[in-house]
Structure formats: C-alpha cells, structure tokens
Amino acid sequence: MTTGDEIGVFEAIYSARSLRHFKPDPVPDALVEKVIDAAIRASSGGNTQHWSFVVVRDPAVRRAVGALYRKASDYAESIYRDRPTPQHLTDTQNRQFVNNSAYLWDHMADAPILLVPCLARREPPPIETLPPVVQARYARHLVNMARTSGASIYPAVQNIILACRALGLGTVITTNHMLYEDELKALLGIPETVSTFALMPIGFPTRKYGPLTRKPVAEVTWLDGWGQPWKAEAR
To answer: What band does 3 get if pLDDT is binned at 50, 70 and 90?
Structure first.
C-alpha cells in the first residue's frame, strides 16, 4: 500500500485519473480519515470551514444511493450522448469516454466507500441592514453568491482526489445525484440547510493510474487579455 510519502504532489496531479472500477476490499477507516483530513486542509470562503462529509459504508445504504444515482443518470444520459464531441477528441474517443462513465451508473454501489462532500448554507445579512449601494445590486449579489459557493468545497474535493492517489486509492467526482438531491438528502438524513456538491466512490482501483492527456498550456492560456497568445519568457 502506498503511504502518501512515496510520491510527490506533481506526480499525484499528473497521474490521478478518474477511476470507476474498484476491488471489493474494504477501505480501512484510518485511510478514510486521512483522506478527509486532507480535504479539510483546503481553503474555504471566509475561513468558515462550513463543510461536512458523509461516509457511506453500509452495503444496504450504498445500494440505495446507487439506485438513486442510476435514476439520475438515466435522466442525464440523453444529454451526455447528444452533446457535440469536444474538438480535441475523436468520435471514437468520445464514445469510449461516455461508455466508461456509464459503467459507474450501474456500479456506484460496488465501491466500498461512497463519500458525499457537503456545504452548509450561509445566509446573507438582511437587505435592510446593508448600505444603499449594496441594496441596489443585492439580487445580482445573491446570484453571484450561488455561483461561487462551490469555491468553498471543490478545493476540498480536489484534495480528496489527490489524497486518494497518494494512498493508493481511486476515486472520481460525480454530480448526477444532484438532479434528485432532495431524495439523497432524505435517504442520508442531510439537513435542509446543507447542500451536497459531489458523490465520490472510493476504493482500491482495479485499473491503472495516469498518465493524463490534456491540451497543451499554450492552447488554453492567454496573456494580458483574451485572444492574445501566451508566450513564456525565455530564462
């Protein structure tokens, strides 16, 4: 078993593939706790640390979560399959990606651990207590708050992915369950004031880690403004 001290952070980043096939072996509690301890080292808005993590280990509960995930994935399937192929993929590569993703729709419950990262709602102050300049654009402010709320949980999710890689575990971030989030929250007893942001299967993988294939930096980076190509300065 990898201890986490045997690979560097960049090796973890460059090899932490999305893994969906797991051995039935249980994941020791000490490793689960280490993964979550890595998660809570991430930043959160205002350092509120208003996250929580539901660990689903009971087989019956995992099956119930898996059934709900399958239901949500049935809903999303036509959207996934009808989306245009990304320019950097061939049609064959895109079909392979969709089919690989679809494996988990039927096998979510096979992972020995399902992890649900959550975030408690932060209520904004009453509008009448705010300065006029804020009141004038308060509706837009609330929209922006909803848009940016994930910034307080997704850094923790990325830490989970990297910690799993360092510990010899596999995982992937999924979100289809959010189409029926109320049902998942009822199943797991999650309060109404708490939202879920991911459903992550975790286990010892049966498939290999990276390397990962991505577009080169020059294709996704602009310098000093949109459309101006990035050029690294010579050293």
So the answer is: very low
pTM: 0.89
For residues 41 and 222, give the distance between their C-alpha atoms in angstroms, rounded to a whole number. Answer: 30
Q: Name the nearest CA neighbour of 161 among 35, 25, 56.
A: 35
Q: Which CATH class is domain 9-220?
A: alpha beta
Please give the C-alpha separations between residue 180 and each of 41, 175, 228, in angstroms, as whole numbers.
29, 10, 42
Average pLDDT score, the chain: 91
CA–CA separation, 80 and 102 (whole Å): 10
Q: How many CB atoms lie within 10 A of CB 3?
A: 10
What angle separates helix 59-82 from helix 181-188, to the nearest 10 degrees? 170
Model confidence at 2: pLDDT above 50? no
